[in-house]
Write a structure and sequence with these properties.
CATH class of the largest domain in chain A: Alpha Beta
Number of domains of chain A: 2
Helix content of chain A: 40-55%
Distance between the termini of chain A: 47 Å
Oligomer: homodimer
Radius of gyration of chain A: 26 Å
Number of helices of chain A: 16
Shape of chain A: elongated
Largest sheet of chain A: 7 strands, antiparallel
CATH superfamily of the largest domain in chain A: nicotinate phosphoribosyltransferase
Strand content of chain A: 15-25%
Structural class of chain A: alpha/beta
CATH architecture of the largest domain in chain A: Alpha-Beta Barrel
Number of strands of chain A: 19
Strand order of the largest sheet of chain A: 13-12-1-5-3-17-18
């Protein structure tokens, strides 16, 4: 439904009307925009950067196609000079960014675009749209990863994700953050995200009996036998699986596990574990699903319910407790002149910035300093040049490599931030040079305000 | 990024493993599935059906492309018999549905699919994904429409919508529900949704002075002059606009309005209105934006703040207060045999259903009866046959026609349901025949459970 050729029009109208003003005035000087979060929602102690790969693809491929130019020409708002500009448009700028999987905090830019003003402005809407969503999901998924070490976590959320792209990118972002895989087939096909799946209640219901349903499924999918127990009576179904598993074993088919999807999951799991163990099926795994999120998973894990894994769906893919982040893309510099926004309650820091991260003796994140790009601070600089003259400077990062970055970052989180409970904010300092620059910009800005 | 050819793999893995079992067993009998909401979230008194048009497009166009079949063949899970089936797959079933824009309530099916089991099962994930999201957004947008009669309401949410498709479909669903338009250009290009847009703070900031920024924008976009006032000092900017508007008028350019995006919006609007009126600019409209939703819009309207319109963004497109609905697609019948789900807390009503709606003497919705399709109840039947043998029986409904259906439905809402506050539930009766059928199904199901 969303055709790639339509991407250029997936933008806010005001980007095009502003472009018209820039092009009419022959304004092509270099602008610098940075993307960052203004603040953390109360239910997040940190965020995980994700979505850069899709942003770079977007910037490399952004072109206006003939039918799009025709629509723009006919819509009555745009002049030939803008249309000529759009016809030859391609992105020629530079991008600095934190690698996907990097843990970050408010006021820290995770992406900087340096390009002629029209280019840097036009790409705003889609860049935010791509980075905001995957960062939202990776940040939520990481919380389940932290509370369920060693468990198999699977994204089950496609159906109630917000559209096709959300479903697909949620699968990617969750895997990046440390999930084991997804049920969404296309994410497996595009990025080799491991696929998981069982059967639906409808499959059991339309068979004349439950044991026959289990057996039909197992014989048709001999390498992938995970059976759903709660259509009628969970424990009775576990007994049926016990009998069936032995019979199938003789035919070389292994039942891998069972899934529970309703009722008191912890209690059912304990009973089912007992039934399976009694039948010497100690290898069979027990998998939970049904309105789960990091909070319910943490409770099940803490209660030592014998689950091997969890399918987390709607509440992950819709990021139900925090459905959006306060993510913005703001101008920092134009034609060499630093800028800041001063609107009430929405002020920003000016200039091209870098984030330096220092670690404690135990290797955990200690504090970050947001400095000007030109400053040298102790610690590791988190923003790296990834695109120049509109081209990547290195080949695309494999998703598994980004997943390793996330795992390393999560391993170095301060203990207090790992909790699902709100923690004291991580220490992020704004360098004195930025604060001085802000004061200088304010003095200069008073001129703009007067006229 | 999302290519249409990839749609067939945008599904849950278990759909394909279940299909493999059906195909191996040569099970092709007719299944009936219905899509409905199990319950309303506390912050919704009604829902507005939306997304049917995209579902019908999906069903008409669903095919497995050679590269998708190749991926499936190589992934190691699927046998030639399934692959042969998928290669020739197209949807041949029937669809009954409520027209887009229809108000509905829990337990009422808004869509029914009648098709050979493999077809009806395979399409589940994407049908839910499409209907759930647009219904979610239309239902939220309708609340703003109800609390702000006569105001211009515009979707501003693209950047923080959950991906490209969410941005696009949110613009569509909001317009369907009664919004005046959107800022998302592609929604204008695809469906003629009216486009609105102004300018960003960055545009003002990078000019040497604010008045010059206003004038540059106006001269470049003479038919579309809405100026953003809150970059520095809102009231000072209103004075500049007053002076500029008179000068531009001499050149035949009309300033249409101004936008406020921060601070105490109501208070700023009153002051700006006074400044504009004093300058005889009574026609200039004042538009608000900045973290708005139906709750803040209702407050601004109730306070009689002099706003002509509102741009509602993130909280609409992410449906922030209710980020998902309890939307399911459940089997109701297989091979002529009615079925119901009985899992703890997730029981469903069996059989092919119709919803009859009765109206009070004043034309308002009075009560609904969910009956079997074969029953005749008083009132208007809401589900209509829209697809047969995999083909629509009528041409696609224009979005403006669906928008009129929504307007008619909203006009007939009982007064109590129009409030943003939780109201007593609307009266939805389950017919005695369905209840009897459920009992009969339970008796028959005990057989399936025993084995």
């Amino acid at each position: 439904m969303i055709e790639p050729k339509a991407d250029a029009l997936l933008t806010d109208l005001y980007q095009l009307t502003m472009l018209q003003a820039y092009i009419e005035a022959d304004q092509h000087e270099t602008a610098v925009f940075e993307l960052f979060m203004r603040k953390l929602p109360p239910a997040r102690n940190f965020l995980v950067a994700a979505g850069l790969e899709q942003v770079l693809q977007f910037l490399e491929n952004l072109r206006f196609q003939p039918d799009e130019l025709e629509w723009l020409a006919n819509c009555g708002r745009f002049k030939p000079k803008l249309l000529d500009y759009l016809q030859q448009f391609h992105f020629t700028g530079a991008v600095h960014a934190m690698p996907e999987g990097t843990v970050f905090f408010p006021d820290e830019p995770i992406l900087r675009v340096t390009a002629p003003i029209a280019e840097a402005q036009l790409v705003e809407s889609r860049i935010i749209n791509l980075l905001h969503f995957q960062t939202l999901i990776a940040s939520k998924a990481a919380r389940s990863v932290l509370v369920a070490p060693g468990k198999t976590l699977v994204d089950f959320g496609m159906r109630r994700a917000h559209g096709a792209e959300a479903a697909l990118l949620a699968a990617r972002a969750a895997y990046l953050a440390g999930f084991s895989g997804t049920a969404t087939v296309l994410a497996g096909a595009l990025w080799n995200v491991p696929l998981y799946g069982t059967m639906a209640h409808s499959f059991i219901q339309l068979h004349r009996d439950e044991s026959e349903a289990f057996e039909d499924f197992a014989r048709a999918n001999p390498g992938n036998v995970v059976l759903l127990l709660d259509t009628y009576d969970t424990e009775a179904a576990a007994e049926k699986v016990s009998r069936l598993a032995k019979r199938l074993k003789n035919d070389g088919i292994n039942v891998l596990g069972v899934r529970l999807d309703s009722g008191d999951l912890g209690e059912h799991a304990r009973r089912v574990r007992r039934i399976l163990d009694t039948a010497n099926l100690t290898d069979l795994t027990i998998f939970a699903s049904g309105n789960l999120d990091e909070y319910s998973v943490a409770k099940l894990v803490a209660s030592q319910a014998p689950f091997d894994g969890f399918g987390i769906g709607t509440r992950l893919d819709a990021s139900a407790d925090v459905p959006y982040l306060d993510c913005v893309y703001k101008i920092q510099e134009y034609a060499g002149r630093p800028l800041r926004k001063r609107s009430e309650g929405k002020a920003t820091w000016p200039g091209r910035k870098q984030v330096f991260r220092s670690f404690d003796d135990d290797g955990r994140m200690g504090r970050d300093v947001v400095s000007l790009e030109t400053e040298a601070e102790p610690g590791e600089p988190l923003l790296k040049l990834v695109m120049e003259h509109g081209r990547r400077i290195e080949p695309p990062v494999e998703l598994d490599a980004a997943r390793r970055v996330a795992a390393e970052n999560l391993a170095r989180l301060p203990a207090s931030l790992r909790s699902l409970e709100p923690a004291n904010a991580y220490d992020v300092k704004i360098s004195p040079a930025i604060q001085e620059l802000a004061n200088a910009v304010d003095l200069a800005t008073n001129h703009a305000e007067r006229f």
